[in-house]
Amino acid sequence: MNARTLLVCGGTLLWLVRLCSAEVVFPPPWSQSLPKQTSQEWDTQMNSGTQMVPPNPGFENPYGLPTVSFTGAEVVPEVGPHEQIIPTWHISDPLGGTLTIKVPNNPDPDLYKLVFWQITADKSVTPTGDPPTTDPPGTSLPTGLPAIRWGAGTWYTYNGLIRIDPNPEFETITFQLVESTNISEIVVNTVCVPEPGCLGLLAAGAVVVGIGRRRLRA
After folding, report:
1. Angstrom distance (rounded) from CA 147 to CA 160
2. Rounded to whole angstroms, how far apart are CA atoms 81 and 154?
3. How high does pLDDT run on average in the chain?
4. Which pLDDT band, with edges at 50, 70 and 90, does 29 fall under?
5. Which residue in 49, 79, 80, 199 has its CB near the most CB atoms, within 10 A?
6. How many domains does the chain have?
7. Looking at the predicted structure, is the pLDDT value of residue 13 above 70?
8. 155 closest CA partner among 184, 198, 186
9. 3-state SS of the chain?
10. 67-71: strand order across its sheet
11. Residue 115 contacts residue 138 (beta carbons within 8 Å)
12. 32-86, pLDDT tens digit by residue?
């Protein structure tokens, strides 16, 4: 096996590894001990299409099937955040497009729902500065976690936190994207908060995340 073949095989292996799991850059800002949590992750694959994409294996929501769908998009190979060619969801419509994420919840009438999202893209997923819209409507909350830039390019991992009162059976999250946006990964974590007593656990989780981020920047 010559050097060229080894290089090609190595590049293919890296590409396949890149497809197998999303990078959870930001953990959800709450305690991992809380019940009624969900976790779902999506990586783009060339055969994934842009409509109703199931999550990565191993991240299925226990309350139903979460899905991702796009309008004005196609799947194309692009130079990704780690400087290798990867498939991305590419907004090709000159008028822009949308990303819609549907997440089922525990159907119990809980106090409220927290939705924490993370998206890796080469353009802002909130280009107007407004947070994504939700159905039912929610309130955007500060996360305390800054966006992470990858290398010297334009790729960032963005994040946001949304609260929906009261807890719905499912929520739909919609992002308005501009032309030529490329998205490689999507991660969504949620928790249904059943009672005020859980607020202490939420606060403790947020403090731990904040301390971890300060240490990383130190």
Report:
1. 10
2. 8
3. 83
4. very high
5. 80
6. 1
7. no
8. 184
9. CCHHHHHHHHHHHHHHHHHHCCCCCCCCCCCCCCCCEEEEEEECCCCCCCCCECCCCCCCCCCCCCEEEEECEEEEEEECCCCCEEEEEEECCCCCEEEEEEEECCCCCCCEEEEEEEEEECCCCCCCCCCCEEECCCEEECCCCCCEECCCCCCEEEEEEEEECCCCCEEEEEEEECCCCEEEEEEEEEEEECCHHHHHHHHHHHHHHHHHHHHHHC
10. 67-71, 97-104, 170-177, 133-135
11. yes
12. 888 899 999 999 988 888 989 999 988 878 999 999 999 999 999 999 999 999 9
Segment 129-180, tens digit of pLDDT: 999 999 999 999 999 999 999 999 999 999 999 999 999 999 999 999 999 9
Q: Supply the pLDDT for residue 215.
A: 41
pTM given for the model:
0.82
Cβ-Cβ contacts under 8 Å for 97 (sequence gap 6 or more): 70, 71, 72, 73, 91, 177, 179, 181
Provide the residue count of the chain. 218
Q: 65: domain range? A: 3-217
